[in-house]
Amino acid sequence: MKRIPVAGPWITQKEVEYVADAVANAWYDKANIYHERFEKAFADYIGVRYAVSLPSCTSAIHLSLVALGVGPGDEVIVPDITWIASAAPITYVGATPVFADIDPKTWCLSAKSFEECITSRTKAVIVVDLYGGMPDMEAILDIARRHNIAVIEDAAEAIGSEHKGKRAGSFGDTGVFSFHGSKTLTTGEGGMLVTNREDVYHRVLFLRDHGRPPGDKMFWNTEVAYKYKMSSLQAALGLAQLERVEELVARKRQIFQWYQERLDDVPGITLNYEAPGTKNSYWMVTAVIDPDWGLKKEQLMKLMNDYNIDCRPFFHPLSSLPAYQALEQARQAQYRNQVSYQISPYGINLPSALNLTREQVEYVSNVLKSILHSQR
Ligand SMILES: *Cc1c(COP(=O)(O)O)cnc(C)c1O
Q1: Final residue of a structural domain among 199, 224, 242
Q2: Ligand 1 mean position, distance from CA 321 (Å)
Q3: Which of 115, 146, 265, 283 has its CA 20 to 30 A from that of 231?
């Protein structure tokens, strides 16, 4: 039997044609045509003024921190449960990550824990729309405003999600997206930084091209900066995907619904939450198993693997990773972040690739149910 992948894209002839056109024609005076179209269409879709295409979401977070003036001595608050890419750039700029707890329902940053982590050194917060779900955005933005803390919204997993009719990625000083091959909209590797702030926009354009303003023809660098640019082939692929974004998001929601129909009535399984007034784009269908079943995520993944089903572990708390053990902040977080440490050991991401069929979802759901029942 063919292996069921956990993630993967939906590519059509349109994408192939756009990339073929870019490789043939996007040179000389047309070198930037696909970037311009992709960025303009992306900003319109998210509902923001500016979008800058980049090689990854990690570079978008890095540039956000630099552009917002975060540096050595500053603290940046980040949820303990997320991919390490959300937090690693804090270290790149010489600042200190402070790991806050998550909310037990949304699995995103807890507003309460965020507020408790604030000190006089807190300069920014990175809010993550985990697995496509939305945090309590009003409370978080209100706390950030009161304490004069910059907000970076990591919407890498949440293209197409909404909160009160506004799109994910549009809430902070900057919003960042990933187009990695596993994400809902892909360019293979790639990312986007969006903002409504003109000052941040111009600073990012300058920083991502070795410290010179766009259009500089004299190769006159006024700062040592970065080289973070997307290729026109990726921009063409991204534009084609973006023109199909409603279809991509609808398919993710369809896949979630297929799972929900088959797993919702099983006691002791909690699937992704869609808070009232929000739209979840369900990047990864995620099941948290009640500890009463006596199954941790590592065991469960192994058992699913025996049936040729590829799963991923719910993110480990960042503060538990070897990468952060030298940091005093990690030790504090291990005591503080009880929700993160309670949920993480019992969660797995189920196959959520865009090419998944209803029959495959049926199979995965049946396997999961039979594994749980054989535990009894
Ligand atoms: C995928 C992901 C990133 C990083 O994206 P890259 O494009 O691989 O740099 C950042 N944050 C979150 C939450 C992600 O899931």
Answers
A1: 242
A2: 17
A3: 283
